[in-house]
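In response to reviewer comment 3 from the previous cycle, which asked for concrete evidence that the modeling workflow produces usable outputs, we include below a single protein chain processed end to end. The sequence was submitted unchanged, and the resulting structure tokens are shown without manual editing.
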Amino acid sequence: MALYTTQAHVTGGRAGHGETSDGLLKVDLAMPKELGGPGGATNPEQLFAVGYAACFESAVRFIARKQKLPLTDAAITSTVSLLPHGEGFKLGVALAVETKGLDQAAADALVSAAHQVCPYSNAIRGNIDVALSVKAA
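The workflow returned the following structure tokens.
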């Protein structure tokens, strides 16, 4: 049984408009200038980067609570790259994790554990390479 389900509707693909069924997210989409488009609006890679970073930080905080770690703060910088793949494309991801309240070894172990429970990590495991880096403070 699903814990949560949402729905989005998009028309026009990368040059279109997307909206969630509850109306909370309404976004115009445009091909980035780097790919020959006009830019000026968001794109699927940016949306993926924000979603993955938010989800991964929540996983970090979940594991810290579960393990009763003294984590006082965390932040994630997510870098998503569109890469060529044969006749098509694939994504590459780098997650730079910053933690406060932990030493480096504890932060590394926390991020490794979070990578095992994060829904985005689980969804893409084996399909998208994810480079993790951790900075403890």
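Strands lie at 8-11, 17-20, 26-28, 73-85, 88-100, 129-136. We consider this sufficient to address the reviewer's concern, and the full set will be provided in the supplementary archive.
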